[in-house]
Amino acid sequence: MKRLILTLFSLLFILIFGSCAKESLISEVTSPKGTNTINFFLSEQGEPMYTIIHENQMVIDTSTMGFEFKDQESLKSGLELLNITKTVEDEIWEMPWGEQKKVRNHYQGMIVSLKESKTPNRKLNIHFKAYDDGVAFRYEFLEQEGHDSITIMEEHTEFQLTGDHTAWWIPGDWDIYEQLYNTTKVSEIDAISKRDHPNLAATYIPENAVNTPVTMRSDSGLHLSFHEANLTDYSGMTLKVDNEALKLTSDLVHSDRLGYAVKTSLPAVTPWRTIQIADRAGDLIESRLIENLNEPNKLGDISWFSPMKYVGIWWEMHLGLSTWDLEATQAGGMTIDGGDVKHGASTENTKRYIDFAAANGFGGVLVEGWNTGWNYWIGFEDREGVFDFITPYSDYDLGEISEYAKNKGVEIIMHHETSAAPRTYEKQMDAAYKLMQENGMHSVKSGYVGKIIPKGEYHHGQWMVNHYRKALEKAAEYEVAVNAHEPIKPTGLRRHLPNTISAEGLRGQEFNAWATDGGNPPEHLPIVAFTRMLAGPIDFTPGVFEIALLQKPDNQINTTLAQQLALYVVIYSPIQMACDLPENYAGRPALQFIRDVGVDWEQSKVLNGEVGDFVTIAREERKSGNWFVGGITDENAREMTIDFDFLPEGKIFKAALYRDGVDAHYRSNPQALQIEQLEIKKGDSKTIKLAPGGGFAISLIAK
Amino acid sequence: MKRLILTLFSLLFILIFGSCAKESLISEVTSPKGTNTINFFLSEQGEPMYTIIHENQMVIDTSTMGFEFKDQESLKSGLELLNITKTVEDEIWEMPWGEQKKVRNHYQGMIVSLKESKTPNRKLNIHFKAYDDGVAFRYEFLEQEGHDSITIMEEHTEFQLTGDHTAWWIPGDWDIYEQLYNTTKVSEIDAISKRDHPNLAATYIPENAVNTPVTMRSDSGLHLSFHEANLTDYSGMTLKVDNEALKLTSDLVHSDRLGYAVKTSLPAVTPWRTIQIADRAGDLIESRLIENLNEPNKLGDISWFSPMKYVGIWWEMHLGLSTWDLEATQAGGMTIDGGDVKHGASTENTKRYIDFAAANGFGGVLVEGWNTGWNYWIGFEDREGVFDFITPYSDYDLGEISEYAKNKGVEIIMHHETSAAPRTYEKQMDAAYKLMQENGMHSVKSGYVGKIIPKGEYHHGQWMVNHYRKALEKAAEYEVAVNAHEPIKPTGLRRHLPNTISAEGLRGQEFNAWATDGGNPPEHLPIVAFTRMLAGPIDFTPGVFEIALLQKPDNQINTTLAQQLALYVVIYSPIQMACDLPENYAGRPALQFIRDVGVDWEQSKVLNGEVGDFVTIAREERKSGNWFVGGITDENAREMTIDFDFLPEGKIFKAALYRDGVDAHYRSNPQALQIEQLEIKKGDSKTIKLAPGGGFAISLIAK
């Protein structure tokens, strides 16, 4: 009955708000609870069209769909209905690691089969899925006589907004996602103005487009986030912005080398185009829509990888204290005059980090700059064959270190910087992953700094999408998990390939050490939590305690120390770095929180939050049943009351509350911290002050 | 010139305050700065007498000296002056470990040689030393014709007080020092009333006497502490109290078995009788008088022992969670019905503690109950031959554990409970210490619970004094350091034998787990710091975090959690235990303080303090230059302002302040703790609130 009413409602709305083009409703599908409805139409010219209704409110007005090809006519009109299939699915699947253990995949679907009225009568299927937390659709290209593949020049998927929403966006860069988020009305989005960022090794912004996830809030307070799921053998989708019409249109990353966007053999499906829809901002974070739209686990048991906290030889390079290259000419991404700066990845220094990790129960030690090639890794046109993923520098005894780490119960995290020369990397992949397996390493951080070689390819194009995928599949053969930096954006692939453990793909902590624009502002992470984080785990590398960055007088972290702690809960990743120097943790009681905090979760709850302003998340650790809470704010101080109703009945928790000191401020007094030890149970509540740029973290240890 | 004036002064005072007995000043000696003066007299009857003057104030009025022997006439009068020798010494010596590195031994001395006027013309020398922080004297017995030894029945050394001072005292128990301190006027000291304490395995209080150190404060605010130094081949001295005359008289512990107090071959010297004198209570703690009166280091380099923090299988027995004996019949010193209680010292449980120690940078793991004998260790008349110091229980693999500990960089601390059967222990000493050396153990905790076997001997008599010494000397041969429980009181021997690392000899933490009198009251440690602690290092075993003692509903620690932290600085020992269960430290940010706090000091400063009320001590760690501050209070809340003038010029310290939570109280809310992180430099000051039974601890890590 409810379904019927909603259908009537939606019809009604179409009559009222429907675009002027004359069209007829073909069919509609509504989410299990009736929250979201997708309507599909065909125009008189046979153009496929759709609208999205959320709780009686039109959120996407009539929007068309279509494709342009290299060697065929475009496919956007002249289509007629062949058939409609309705589907219902309700499954529960388990994440081997994640924000929660059990995930419910519950939707109602519709497959619309279309056919060209005139020859060559090409067929096109459109798959729709209506979830209570959003909607998704994708295109299916069927066999065609005389064509074993298609070459897509452009995809025209429209998202017609129904208002001039507030948008949190980064430019539609084909090479990198490491920009600050902008907060503007859709009508004011200007990606072009974001070209030529001085701190980006590779950036290309051809259009006034945005990258996904892009999140918006309507004047009525409804939240929308646009992204894609299961990006496989296809190029990344940016969204071109029509500032007047308030319309987003898919704009695929091209290969200038090959002269097209996507080439794929038939039959083929595109990635899912997704819209997460939520009245409450926090529901965007709790949504598992993106993972649900991916294929089930293909790797089976991956117990060889365990979520962990790690330290590493990394931050000291960004502070200019040591270098990646043996000759000590590279630090903080810049060429330096060595002076008394030394190569970071020495056997001795690595052991120092291993000792620190062991003494604090951290599982991993990342070592960057261990292998040859770093002296030509950046600022050179031809970087093919420069990096060697097998050969350590002369001062790095890989065997001795692996043994030393093993005896201390610590695992070395491998590092593979490709300098955006993927062909060189692919040649060595087998050997490189084999070396890791032989030395008991089960995770690798990969990097793709710089412009892609060959010229004309971009990080987010199909060619690189397939490279990133190849690395994951190859790594899995050797029981290696991948944490890619300068990656393709996550699209939920971790469900299918759970060795996809984390990724960068945003402006991370490192920018705070050297960005010439003053580093990440306090609003950065309160935006990231509602944008980039909807795509998947983030290797943000929190945990800077020496926030003033003594070695970098012009830079400083724009958060308080308490917020650095909160990030271990707020920003999800199965691997979390304690990125500061061991000596900077000495004598810091706040270190206890990093020692305690979980990295693998039974469940997660967003207690409060507004995009770009603040967010508080509570997560229950698997096995232990301990809970951890993290809250962060932007440049504004706030007072929050946390209700501990999420705790289990009748259990008392040993709680430690880490919060901003009385006079804490992200600029003037970032390290003022107060830690309070107390006992907390369900029903208790606590009011906490957050300083400007501040935060808080709570550990709740089950007694 | 100054000396002369003082001499005149002292003469003047003698005329005014001198006792009525007619006597003549023989000579006097004054401390280097002229602070303290000792006057020596002979009465008309040839009785040796002395007085002590401090800053023009008589602190000890005319007091006589003398001895009674078994087979000779007593020697207390009829003496005439033979000769007087004046000495001056000013040396600086180094403590291999200690409250400070360099110690200045600066005094002016006088040796008075006396001789009986009539036959047998026995000679007696009295050595006096005047320090600016106190005075000391001892007796020297010279060769006598026809006597190669003397047998002392009693020593009559008087200390005639000049007022009814407030005294902090424990009864003159010949077997144990584990009583609570009493605070009364001297006229009200009643040791007899302290007999038959229900929680003491051996106690014998024959007289209205007190044990030393006993500390007093005069109405004018002057502090005196009476003790002895270099107790060698002699019996311990208690001080008999004359409540009317306000006089203390030495009362030696006797051997009822042998029928005398001391037998010693000639020539011989007695221990030093010492009086520490201070206007400011804190100066008593800063005084190194006791160590200065001992012989120089006889062992030389003892780098095989390093000061350390340690954990151990110990508190869990006191909580009744596990047992010393394999059969699980003994817990918390009481016979129990095993039930699901298990033997504590299993290989598996020991490894758990080793892992915890390694993960927190603690150097040692104490394992009690590892060896056979525990099922007959207490409550049996004949305990000779019961304990075996070589044979582990069947569930304790000593070799495997030693190897496991070694690989984790942790050292096992051996445990030797003798159940007060020293002859059994002496038989096995060589084998026992050899076993330790073979397994890389360099320290032992020894115990002497119960009444001494053979009957008629007491813990504090000459026979046991020599046993404790023998253990130290024997242990040193095998590079073993000794931490004796139920020991003879420390008398500064650690200077001569620096493997004398620590000792119990007071009512320690363990009483809080089961004492039927409600445990140590909040004033206990503010008294201990000015009494027992003047004798030497204390193995108090601080660090209980689960203060409510969930397993012991009738018991609880009478301090706040913050005070437990403060004790690591306030109560000095080169080995400091983190005595609580590993699980009780989980998730506690306060653990960071124990991880950080030093155990070996370059210098120590008492910032404030009043006996029995409160005390704050700051100590600088050797090598690191880090500073740590601890402050504790009694049952009264206080506010203190700490000035950080003791810090070096121009250095900034990363400070963590651990203090009582707003509503903290040692009974109702002992675990409320606040930790504040800040930066501190010389010249800064901080006002801190201490809760009833509370305290605070500050770590200052050099940046």
TrEMBL record, chains A, B:
Residues 600-700 form the Glycosyl-hydrolase 97 C-terminal oligomerisation domain. Residues 29-296 form the Glycosyl-hydrolase 97 N-terminal domain. Residues 314-505 form the Glycosyl-hydrolase 97 catalytic domain. Its cofactor is Ca(2+). Keywords: Calcium, Hydrolase. SUPFAM superfamilies: (Trans)glycosidases. It comes from the Bacteria. One of its GO terms (molecular function) is hydrolase activity. Gene3D superfamilies: 2.70.98.10, Aldolase class I (3.20.20.70). PROSITE patterns: PROKAR_LIPOPROTEIN. InterPro entries: Aldolase_TIM, GH, GH-type_carb-bd, GH97_C, GH97_catalytic, GH97_N, Glycosyl_hydrolase_97. Coiled coil: none annotated. Monomer. This is Glycoside hydrolase family 97 protein.
